Amino acid sequence: MNNPLRQYFRRPALYVTLPSKGTFYPEGSIEMPENGELPVFPMTAIDEITSKTPDALFNGVAISDIIKSCVPAIKDPWAMPSMDIDAVLIAIRAATNGNDLEISSTCPACEEEATYGVNLIGLLSGMSSGDYASTLN
Questions:
Q1: Distance of alpha carbon 128 from alpha carbon 52, whole angstroms
Q2: Distance between CA 90 and CA 99 in Å, rounded?
Q3: Is the pTM of this model over 0.90?
Q4: Residue 22 pLDDT
């Protein structure tokens, strides 16, 4: 059946490989595709509103809801290993606002303000997983 509105459905803007490669997740908390790359959708208007709700940000519900909305393969964001959270949030930012993130800073010595561009996809590609096969005694 062809839906005439199909062209307006939300589509993944990029795909991200998690630093953990999907290991360390409890059963049922993630649906890992065969290629290991999770689709990342741009934030919706309600996601933007959620990201500006102070109480939801304070207790973490906003971040959890945004991850569920933008990376639907992650079923339980509360069960995510901490090594994956930064990668997922950077991917959501890149999917929503584009690859470049502008950061302004002021030099404490001369008080000159400068703006820098950060390549978010470059940050994602530089993230790697550690070796967690060895145990500490």
A1: 30
A2: 10
A3: no
A4: 86
